[in-house]
Write a structure and sequence with these properties.
By secondary structure, the chain is mainly alpha-helical. The protein is built from 10 helices and no strands. The longest helix is centred in the last third of the chain and has 44 residues, at 195-238.
Length: 239
């Protein structure tokens, strides 16, 4: 880590020559392009729906697709910090809020599709389904944890809560990611196919592992630095 800190981010020499800070106009264009791209999965569902392309079980196809894109948006959101550490780019941090809100957006649509298209808002049927399939409870918990993160995503809430409290609250995204994978895993385990949930679990585990290693390095690196400084001062005093 010391080598990385002296020479810059790990991939800075191998990454394309993209500046760490983008010009306002360039960033606005990039943000608009990514916003439209993030809406393409939803547009695809509408296109397939109007062209009878949702398969033999369209309800399951819609619910599964919306859940998948919720996970994809979560993975992209969690990838922002490792990308910044690896490349030195600062501009991806300004996109993290947008992708986080897209994760909430697709999670709401995923749950709404289950309530509407699958259960037709039948409370008794939903309750029976929850008792029979606990992964639905896990999914509902995941969505509920996303609600305060979406509500407090604005700069105004950062000021109201204070930067440190806001960061503590938004660490719930790590719990959300774990519960989302568990929800997906449990649902696919019933069909004896956990290959896709396993892939998401590995990717999210690696992304969270980067944060853990960074936190450990920052904590113990500072302690080592303080200890070295103290020993240097003591030697100077004795000399």
């Amino acid at each position: 880590m010391a080598v990385i800190s002296r020479q810059g981010p790990l991939l800075a020499r191998f990454a394309p020559r993209i500046p760490p800070v983008l010009a306002p106009r360039t960033f606005a264009r990039l943000q608009a392009a990514l916003f439209v791209t993030a809406l393409l999965p939803l547009a695809r569902l509408f296109f397939l729906g109007f062209n009878a392309g949702l398969g033999a079980n369209p309800v399951e196809f819609v619910i599964r697709s919306l859940g998948t894109w919720t996970l994809v948006a979560l993975v992209v959101t969690l990838s922002i910090t490792p990308m910044r550490l690896a490349t030195g780019w600062a501009w991806p941090l300004r996109l993290r809020r947008m992708f986080g809100l897209f994760a909430f957006f697709y999670a709401v649509l995923h749950f709404a599709a289950y309530l509407w298209l699958d259960q037709w808002f039948d409370v008794a049927a939903i309750w029976t389904d929850v008792l029979k399939r606990p992964y639905i409870t896990i999914g509902a918990m995941t969505l509920l944890l996303l609600v305060p993160l979406a509500i407090t995503s604005s700069n105004g809430w950062v000021q109201r809560l204070g930067g440190r409290n806001w960061q503590r609250l938004h660490r719930l995204v790590y719990v959300v990611a774990g519960l989302a994978v568990l929800h997906f895993w449990w649902q696919r385990a019933a069909k004896n196919d956990v290959s896709e949930p396993l892939a998401y679990a590995i990717v999210i585990g690696l992304l969270l592992g980067v944060r853990l290693l960074r936190s450990v390095w920052q904590r113990y690196g500072r302690m080592d630095s303080s200890a070295n400084n103290s020993s240097t001062v003591s030697r100077r005093r004795t000399s």
